[in-house]
From TrEMBL, chain A:
PANTHER family to which the protein is assigned, alphabetical: ARABINOSE-BINDING PROTEIN-RELATED, DIACETYLCHITOBIOSE BINDING PROTEIN DASA
Pfam families: SBP_bac_1
Matches recorded under InterPro entries: Bact_solute-bd_prot1, SBP, TAT_signal
Superkingdom of this protein's organism: Bacteria
Organism, as annotated: Murinocardiopsis flavida
CDD domains: PBP2_TMBP_like (cd13585)
Protein name as catalogued: Carbohydrate ABC transporter substrate-binding protein (CUT1 family)
TrEMBL record, chain B:
Gene Ontology biological-process annotations: transmembrane transport
Biased composition, class Low complexity, residue ranges: 9-19
Top-level taxonomy: Bacteria, Bacillati, Actinomycetota, Actinomycetes, Streptosporangiales
GO CC annotation terms, alphabetical: plasma membrane
Transmembrane regions listed in the UniProt entry: 35-62, 95-116, 128-145, 176-199, 236-257, 283-307
Presence of the UniProt keyword Endoplasmic reticulum in the record: no
Region of interest (Disordered), residue spans: 1-25
InterPro entries in the record: ABC_transporter_permease (IPR051393), MetI-like (IPR000515), MetI-like_sf (IPR035906)
Protein localization: Cell membrane
Signal peptide: none
Domain ABC transmembrane type-1: 91-304
Name by which UniProt lists this protein: Carbohydrate ABC transporter membrane protein 1 (CUT1 family)
Automatic annotation (TrEMBL), chain C:
Spans through the membrane: 32-52, 94-115, 127-149, 155-179, 200-222, 258-279
Name this polypeptide is given: Carbohydrate ABC transporter membrane protein 2 (CUT1 family)
Family recorded in the similarity comment: Belongs to the binding-protein-dependent transport system permease family.
Region Disordered, annotated ranges: 1-24
């Protein structure tokens, strides 16, 4: 270990160091540049194409269904690009990232959000109150506006102005495996109509050694979304349109009690079967019934076309009225984007124009690309006419399940979280529904006192 | 192995060079060299961690809507923290989690390192086997365990039922979920710290063991009197970094496995911070929570440093 | 320089008698240790074995919880490589991980050398500051970090994937602890010969660092290979997709074809396992290279 180089070069006089120094200097420069950055202005490149973020458009997977969905987006964009100077470009973001990741929040917080994006009802108010949703109304004709099915625009509008355009309506229902029912000695006549029937059927399925009735178990916007029908069926609600908190009620207590009873009776599992995959859950006999949405039809069609299953509308409590939740994603334009006006026009022309292509597109998404209810009367008529709802399962959705639907609420995070905590506690932690309903109502009350954003619906 | 035997200031690296009388010139050159050696990392850390942290602390005093509005609100976020029951819940969960994860991982990794540092057949295979979990990404780990622990067809449940034990819902019962996460973390991390312990063990001169063996000392005596004291710098390092990793990491696993559920049963503080920031867009509040977390960790680390004179340890004679 | 621990010598008087018994018991013990290690190893790798066997299962079998395969298939792998440019994802991850690892080892060893072996005013303060960056929770700094990286023009680029990932106090801290225990004579011998600090670092410290480098290289490589959150936030370009992001593309809206996800995960995990198999010998052989007696 003896070295004889007497004139060893001193440290630091080497390339990497100097480059690092330069980089560090840039870092400090960045600090100086942060003040405007914090104010939220992104770089503006006037002629660059507008970016359209979704979890479908330009997906790399070659599989049929994925490509079909991707193609649907790309066709919209191609049509637009052919007719407009302001170009649009699809940006694929895997759904797991889109839904619960930090990519979108980071981009928006840094003033670097996409010019166009898809938005779910749960996020609507946060984005609207943040001032990033561009008003789409100027680009929608009165005729097109009335073409939308009643209520689907309500949760995407504020003060009569439309801020997001849905391209699908997704009702929640109960799917069941015919084989499981038969194995438990049950027939179509035994399909549960009330909550008591449901508990009864669950017991029978379980004692026959069949899978249980799957209810969503993971806390999140999705669990709340599929749970709300229970609350509404009892006549309860979270907040009235006037802003009054009504969650601390016998109705809410009753609604919180059903899933609690089902889990505690061993009818419903504490974790989603097959990590949430319906096809595996049903075909492997891990589950007999699953409380989920209309998209399941497409999943089964694609991956288990021969599996025999049925669907029925959510059972109701004694003395209750049937209601289900209607979910679905919508297009939105970023008001802080590079060309909000063009982006807004893009949304409207794609989904809310009376042109043949717009109507066909919405129809195609609902009965071709996916299995949904289209949000527009004209598209629904075309879907009916082309036999989109002829199959028994789709017919049930179209005629029994969809009717009486109510749009997924747009609640701000604190309201969502209060309800979520109540559901989770009652369902999985032995919480007392009365106590949890009261606690949630208190939290929401506290929030509503200072809340200044758009109306909760 | 002896730097720490002297007070840090006296730990002159070049006692033999000092008499020549170049000490002042040398000191200047040494200082200059030190800063040049440090420059790349210091600039990088400053730019990509220090500066963001300073900005994050600034955010803790602001109301941030997640869409470009940054409004100064003084201590409001901290006041909110004090009145937030879920903050206390998540703090309690974090403590339970820490008290379990740190000793268990420490013990498991040290035990494994000591076990496989001896000469035995297939030692490379064992080493690889224990390290293997860490080589897989958290997303995959989450998915694999999701299936292994599933209530109906999970391997773990099947095995338990075979011996007549009714398994709990590992991740679906709030009384178990946190312990399940703890178990997964220990499984995931133990190979990582085992490697660090192995590196530390390699530094213990073999002749000590030889001497002890010649003297007929038992395995426990060897561990107690040779391994443990000589491993002190490594143990210190592991304890410190493991605590920090346990507190600040782990949110990805929870995100994949339970999303904080069931009934907030796995909503430890760092997950709560993630949720506030990215699910709710409450970046200001999240920053306040994380500033609090950094302060706690800083206090803990400084205490450890103070107790060990900056992580320097003396070996042997003491 | 290593101090002699005198305690074991206390056992000396009984040496002859104990030696035989220790030898005989040693063989039995050795068998016990091997058996113990085997059991623990099997338990540890079981979930990963399950992952690998499941990657050869069809969609019907994938969640059945069994380690055995009734109807083995290679389709999942075919799917992974034909559905998406998975090779490209792997190449991206490889490039980023290797560059980060090499640069990080170099920078961190330089910094650690200064912190451990050089005397200068403010050394302890610098060390504490460097260390304290370890305490930062990533979720809290993502947005400021994003802003900085954007201002540096590194969004959506390899530079953005690589540069911020290089700087991490863990490596500096570990190397500093290691360098603290390097005997002074080695450095002195070089210095007497008139070597400057750079030469000492380059010719004495770096060669000594080989074993710890191999351990750190594995850690750095894995951390970057498996990183997900940062690449997800700063890349949008498909050509920059790293492997962990690629896997997430196999999950769809309300579920997933788990057999594909598991096969993709297995493909992603294999290189990292390989890296470790290659490096693990060197970590253990360190005793020969450190120069510690």
């Amino acid at each position: 270990m003896v070295h004889r180089h007497r004139h060893a070069s001193p440290p630091g006089h080497r390339g990497p160091d100097r480059r690092a120094l330069l980089r560090g200097g840039l870092g400090l420069g960045a600090a100086a540049a942060l003040a405007p950055a914090l104010a939220g202005c992104g770089p503006s490149e006037a002629d660059a194409p507008l970016s359209f973020w979704s979890f479908n458009g330009d997906a790399p997977q070659q599989e049929g269904q994925v490509q079909q969905q991707s193609r649907w987006y790309l066709d919209i964009i191609d049509d637009w690009n052919a007719a407009n100077r302001q170009q649009v470009k699809a940006q694929y973001i895997p759904l797991a990232v889109y839904n619960n990741g930090s990519k979108l929040p980071t981009a928006f917080a840094a003033g670097d959000g996409p010019d166009l994006f898809v938005i779910s009802p749960g996020d609507f108010l946060r984005y609207y109150n943040g001032g990033v949703l561009e008003d789409l109304t100027p680009h929608i004709t009165a005729e097109a506006r009335t073409d939308f099915l009643p209520n689907v625009l309500d949760t995407r509008s504020v003060g009569g102005r439309v801020y997001a355009l849905p391209f699908e309506v997704e009702p929640i229902a109960m799917f069941y495996s015919v084989a499981s029912m038969e194995a438990a000695g049950l027939s179509e006549a035994d399909i549960p109509k009330t909550w008591d029937d449901l508990l009864d059927t669950g017991d029978k399925l379980r004692s026959a050694g069949q899978g249980g009735i799957a209810l969503e178990t993971v806390p999140g916007y999705y669990q709340n979304f599929v749970w709300y029908p229970l609350l509404w069926q009892t006549g309860g609600d979270v907040v009235t349109p006037g802003g009054k908190v009504v969650f601390d009620s016998p109705e809410a207590v009753k609604a919180l009690g059903l899933w609690k009873d089902m889990v505690e009776a061993g009818i419903s599992p504490r974790r989603n079967p097959a990590a949430g995959d319906a096809v595996t859950g049903f075909t492997q006999g891990l589950v007999s019934m699953w409380h989920r949405g209309i998209w399941t039809v497409k999943e089964m069609e694609t991956s288990a076309p021969d599996f025999e299953y049925g669907v029925f509308r959510l059972p109701i409590p004694d003395g209750g009225t049937y209601v289900t939740s209607l979910g679905g994603w919508a297009f939105a334009a970023n008001a802080q984007g590079r060309n909000p006006d063009a982006a807004a026009r893009f949304c409207a022309e794609a989904l809310a124009s009376m042109s043949e292509s717009s109507i066909d597109r919405v129809t195609e998404w609902s009965i071709g690309v996916k299995t949904d209810i289209p949000p527009r009367t004209s598209a629904l008529e075309r879907a009916d006419a082309s036999g989109g709802y002829d199959r028994p399962v789709m017919k049930a959705f179209r005629e029994e399940i969809y009717a009486g639907g109510r749009s997924e609420p747009r609640f701000p995070p604190i309201v969502y979280k209060a309800v979520s905590d109540a559901i989770q506690s009652c369902m999985l932690a032995g919480g007392d529904p009365a106590v949890e309903a009261e606690r949630a109502a208190e939290k929401i009350d506290g929030f509503m006192l200072t809340y200044e954003g758009a109306k909760l619906l | 192995m002896t730097v720490g035997e002297k007070a840090p200031e006296a730990a002159a690296p070049a006692p033999s060079a000092a008499p020549v009388g170049r000490s002042t010139g040398r000191g200047k050159a040494e200082t200059r060299a030190a800063w040049l050696f440090l420059a790349p990392d210091l600039l990088g850390l400053l730019t990509f961690l220090g500066l963001p942290m300073v900005l994050s602390v600034a955010l803790a005093f602001m109301r941030v809507d997640g869409f470009g509005t940054y409004e100064f609100v003084g201590l409001e976020n901290f006041r909110r923290m004090l009145g937030d029951p879920q903050f206390y819940d998540s703090l309690r969960l974090t403590l339970v989690y820490l008290v379990l994860v740190v000793p268990l991982t420490f013990g498991a990794s040290l035990g494994l390192a000591v076990l496989i540092q001896r000469r035995m057949p297939f030692v490379g295979v064992f080493r690889s086997a224990f390290f293997l979990p860490y080589s897989v990404s958290v997303v995959v780990v989450g998915l694999v365990w999701e299936f292994m622990l599933s209530d109906d067809v999970g391997v773990v449940g099947i095995a338990l039922r075979a011996v007549g034990v009714r398994p709990p819902s590992w991740l679906g019962d709030p009384d178990f979920a946190l312990f399940t996460v703890v178990g997964l973390c220990v499984w995931f991390w133990m190979g990582y710290y085992m490697i660090i312990f192995l590196a530390g063990l390699q530094d213990i001169p073999r002749d000590y063991y030889e001497a002890a063996r010649l003297d007929g000392a038992g395995a426990w005596a060897v561990f107690r009197h040779i391994t443990w004291p000589l491993l002190a710098p490594t143990s210190f390092f592991v304890l410190l970094t493991l605590t920090v990793a346990a507190v600040t990491g782990g949110f990805e696993l929870i995100l994949v496995l339970t999303n904080g559920g069931p009934s907030n049963g796995t909503s430890v503080l760092v997950f709560y911070i993630y949720q506030q920031a990215f699910t709710f867009g409450e970046f200001g509040y999240a920053s306040a929570l994380s500033a609090f977390l950094v302060l706690i960790l800083l206090a803990w680390s400084m205490m450890l440093f103070a107790l060990t004179r900056g992580g320097r340890f003396s070996h042997g004679r003491s | 320089m290593a101090a002699v621990d005198t305690r074991p010598a206390a056992a000396r008087p009984t040496r002859p008698a104990r030696r035989r018994s220790a030898g005989a018991g040693g063989r039995g013990l050795k068998g016990f240790y091997v058996a113990l290690a085997t059991v623990l190893a099997v338990v540890t790798v079981f979930p990963l074995l399950w992952m690998i066997t499941s990657s050869f299962k069809g969609p019907d079998e994938v969640v059945n919880g069994r380690l055995t395969i009734e109807d083995p298939t290679f389709d999942n792998y075919v799917y992974v490589f034909t559905q998406v440019p998975f090779l490209r994802y792997l190449a991206n991850s490889l490039f980023v991980s290797v560059v980060v690892t090499v640069v990080a080892l170099f920078f961190h060893s330089m910094a650690a050398y200064a912190l451990a072996r050089l005397r200068f005013r403010g050394r302890e303060t610098v060390f504490v500051l460097v260390f304290s960056t370890l305490l930062i929770t990533i979720p809290a700094i993502i947005i400021p970090l994003f802003l900085i990286v954007r201002e540096l023009g590194m969004l959506n680029s390899y530079a953005g994937l690589i540069v911020p990932a290089v700087f991490n106090a863990f490596g500096i801290f570990l190397l500093r602890q290691f360098y603290l225990s390097v005997p002074d004579e080695l450095e002195e011998a070089a210095r007497i010969d008139g070597a400057g600090y750079w030469r000492v670092y380059w010719s004495v410290i770096l060669p000594l660092s080989r074993p710890i480098f191999s351990a750190l290289a594995v850690f750095f490589f894995l951390a970057n290979w498996n990183s997900f959150v940062w690449p997800m936030i700063i890349t949008s370009d498909q050509a920059l997709t790293v492997v962990q992001l690629g896997i997430s593309g196999f999950q769809d809206q309300y579920g997933a074809d788990w057999n594909y996800v598991i096969a993709a995960s297995t493909v992603a995990a294999l290189p990292t396992m390989l890296v470790f198999f290659v490096f693990q010998r060197q970590i253990v052989d360190s005793i020969k290279t450190t120069g510690l007696k």
